């Protein structure tokens, strides 16, 4: 489901703090992504063994979760969202793309510039997880592919961080600038990132493995091979809360809703969200999903409404 936004033509109070969101959340988050992906790439070039790379991979993936909801600006301009993490992947495009490269032993993996042009499904964290957590039919080629993907992640992260330095100035200087013609437009971009990030958490990270009661889909959980599914929910909640609190002060309902959702997420004790197939454990995930919906409602009321933004509440019905 998608949330529909209506931008009301009303006076907007100085609520969403663009500078604070940039300086406390977006810019340091992308800088941390550069740091961790660079460390991952260096480690891969030194030793591509999966057992060696799983720890730096986890640190870099954690950093990506800290900014993955920032889907506007540089990542949109460069079209890098799927190249960073190709998920959801209902047609197993990642497995197919990696399989084609491996079967052909395609030498493109040894050319960093050329590798950036391969299918997005064969790049990024989702592809690298396959190489580090599944048995490989061709370990030697898998090693070269691992290095190529890690190197690509570091390069893309550096591009995004560099671009955000310039993009941040566009957001700060709003007013008469083509990209953001008023401060309100910059505020609304941040709010949209916040709300759609919560929607992605509700509909995809939780909704996809939940499926239906009769047909749960545990194999659709994000990062299940590395047993990071629950961790991604927790990190996503933490990152989205950080953005919300950077945007505005005095958000009692939002803070309370985030606190409840984070508590429920931490209590799952279900790293790969396999419990969605067990009626007793499934209930905990369903309640968590409802808690995420409560966070959405709170941020709409406490941040969106003062900004003159109304979300289509009909899309929040039925949960």
Structure overview:
By secondary structure, the chain is mostly helical. The protein folds into 2 domains: 21-172, M75 peptidase, HXXE motif (A middle domain of Talin 1, Up-down Bundle), CATH 1.20.1420; 183-310, Four Helix Bundle (Hemerythrin (Met), subunit A) (Up-down Bundle), CATH 1.20.120. The chain is 64% helix and 2% strand. The protein has 12 helices and 2 strands; from the N terminus they run βααααααααααααβ. Strands 1-2 form a two-stranded antiparallel ribbon. Helix 9 runs antiparallel to helix 10. The chain is globular. The N and C termini lie close together (12 Å).
Brief digest:
The chain is mainly alpha-helical and 319 residues long.
> Distance between the terminal alpha carbons, to the nearest Å?
12 Å
In spatial order, strands of the major sheet run 1-2
Topology as a string of helices (H) and strands (E): EHHHHHHHHHHHHE
DSSP helix count?
12
Mean pLDDT: 92
Helix content: 55-70%
Q: How would a textbook summarize the main sheet? A: 2 strands, antiparallel
Quaternary structure annotation: single chain
């Amino acid at each position: 489901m998608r949330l529909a936004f209506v931008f009301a033509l009303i006076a907007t109070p100085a609520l969403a703090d663009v500078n604070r969101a940039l300086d406390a959340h977006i810019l340091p988050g992308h800088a941390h992504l550069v740091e961790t992906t660079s460390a991952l790439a260096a480690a891969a070039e030194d030793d591509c063994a999966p057992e060696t790379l799983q720890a730096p991979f986890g640190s870099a993936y954690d950093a990506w979760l800290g900014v993955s909801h920032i889907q506007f600006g540089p990542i949109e301009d460069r079209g890098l969202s799927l190249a960073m993490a190709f998920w959801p992947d209902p047609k197993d495009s990642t497995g197919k793309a990696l399989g084609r490269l491996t079967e052909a032993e395609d030498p493109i993996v040894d050319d960093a510039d050329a590798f950036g042009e391969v299918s997005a499904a064969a790049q990024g964290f989702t592809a690298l997880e396959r190489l580090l957590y599944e048995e490989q039919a061709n370990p030697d080629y898998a090693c070269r592919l691992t290095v190529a993907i890690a190197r690509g992640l570091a390069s893309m992260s550096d591009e995004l961080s560099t671009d955000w330095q310039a993009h941040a100035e566009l957001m700060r200087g709003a007013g008469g600038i083509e990209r953001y013609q008023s401060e309100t437009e910059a505020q609304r971009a941040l709010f949209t990132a916040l709300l759609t990030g919560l929607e992605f958490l509700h509909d995809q990270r939780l909704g996809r493995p939940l499926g239906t009661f009769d047909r749960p889909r545990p194999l659709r959980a994000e990062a299940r091979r590395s047993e990071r599914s629950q961790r991604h929910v927790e990190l996503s909640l933490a990152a989205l809360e950080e953005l919300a609190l950077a945007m505005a002060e005095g958000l009692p309902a939002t803070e309370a809703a985030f606190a409840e959702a984070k508590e429920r997420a931490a209590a799952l004790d279900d790293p790969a969200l396999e419990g969605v197939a067990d009626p007793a454990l499934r209930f905990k995930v369903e309640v968590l999903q409802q808690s995420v919906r409560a966070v959405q409602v709170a941020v709409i009321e406490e941040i969106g409404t003062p900004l003159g933004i109304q979300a289509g509440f009909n899309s929040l019905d039925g949960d």
